[in-house]
Amino acid sequence: MDAATRTRKDIENIERQIAHLESVPGADLKTKEQLYELHRQIESLRTQFDLSSAWQKTELARHPQRPYFLDYVERLFSGWSEMHGDRRFADDPALLCGMARFHGQEVMLLGTQKGRDAKQRVQRNFGMANPEGYRKALRAMKLAEKFKRPIITFIDIPGAYPGLGAEERGQGEAIALNLREMARLRVPTIAIIIGEGGSGGALAIAVADRVLMLENAIYSVISPEGCASIMWRDATKKEVAAQAMKITATDLQNLKCIDGIVPEPDGGAHADIDSAAAMVDEVLHHNLKELMSLPADHLLESRYNKFRNIAQFFTES
After folding, report:
1. Which of 14, 64, 81, 272 could lock onto 265 through a cystine, CB 3.0 to 4.6 A?
2. pTM of the entire predicted model
3. How far is CA 247 from CA 13, 142, 208, 242, 303, in A?
């Protein structure tokens, strides 16, 4: 185990101790002193924690205490009213849609939601959306377009659900249809990757005028473990794969696959969810204000050119 991994493990152990002590009602002076000392230790460790490698960022992006979509809804938006069902098969609890207000502006929100405990994870299908989730998302986006509301999507998904039932109900077709229709929407769209942005499952709600990423989020066509299994026939080479795939926010901004990076508190967004939400709020507000000032035809043209120019490579003659 290398030093960075040991440090991360130490941080996680201390976080668990803090959570346990804070859950005890009526803390006495001794407990408060313990909490103070644990917070001091964790801040010291976070300053030593090197977050430079792609694999370390992958682990942070998957941290079980990382803020999810509903954590941001609670802190940044008011009047949240969830929509349910795709009007064809069922409601998908892994992909949530609803109307809300953001700084006084009516918006449509979409977001993938993982669970905090075992029961919630099963209910939310570990954040992996089914075809009905993507069809519900498209219904919500078309409704937003009808009433001229901007769309904001929050993405934290390891990938679309690959189960037999999902394939039978048209998983690939549902994702492809979303890609096409999002490119045509005549309202401002912002996508923000808050954790994992996995494959077509993420891209199906990320064809946006602005694609943003949190500092420690990842965005890739396949997981590092999956890539290592294919390329080296060895899933243990996941760290090498993560570095080679260029999945971090900095790498993707350099490749012009995203439009901006949202900073996180020291140690990651889970270390201070309120501060992380405040940083997201500032960036979202700035981008939304800018996009709202542009006519629909300009949005369509700019969106088209942005995605057409991604991954273009030229060689010198």
Report:
1. 272
2. 0.82
3. 27, 31, 19, 7, 22
